[in-house]
Design goal:
The protein is mainly alpha-helical and about 140 residues long. The protein has one domain. Helices cover about 85% and strands about 0% of the residues. It starts with a helix and ends with a helix.
Length: about 140
């Protein structure tokens, strides 16, 4: 099970790296005015989203495998809260995909300030999940 836990951590870290960077690209895209820069940012957004999506599935798959392997240990309110936060992270991920499509179609209506705040959501989720998993406060 330690191998499964290792792969879960590797894929979670990789998934978060993508979720931290993609909204930063949105910030730059929302501020961009040059056609060449806009085209480059569209390409980066699409490639990053397509790259990070399978990583997300692997993180979730290894997490489920851990949960099934340690069911008797993984109990309590902390786990339910963590699973709710993971669900929110999945929603965030797919919303990022929707934003990638909007940017690709030149249909973005939000400013770079929105995306700066939007970029903080995975940081908050990561902080809460890390505390829940290590401290198990309830």
């Amino acid at each position: 099970m330690l191998w499964i836990k290792s792969f879960h951590i590797i894929f979670v870290v990789s998934w978060f790296a993508g979720l931290f960077y993609l909204p930063r690209i949105f910030v730059n895209h929302a501020m961009a005015t040059e056609p060449a820069e806009i085209a480059r940012l569209k390409l980066m957004e699409g490639k990053l989203y397509r790259f990070v999506t399978p990583i997300a599935w692997l993180a979730l798959g290894f997490g489920m495998w851990l949960w099934l392997g340690y069911r008797e240990i993984f109990t309590g309110g902390w786990l339910h809260t963590k699973l709710l936060l993971v669900l929110l992270l999945i929603v965030y991920h797919f919303y990022c995909g929707k934003l990638v499509k909007q940017f690709a179609a030149d249909q973005n209506t939000r400013s770079h300030v929105f995306y700066r705040w939007f970029n903080e959501v995975p940081v908050l989720i990561l902080t809460a999940v890390t505390i829940l998993v290590t401290v198990k406060p309830f």
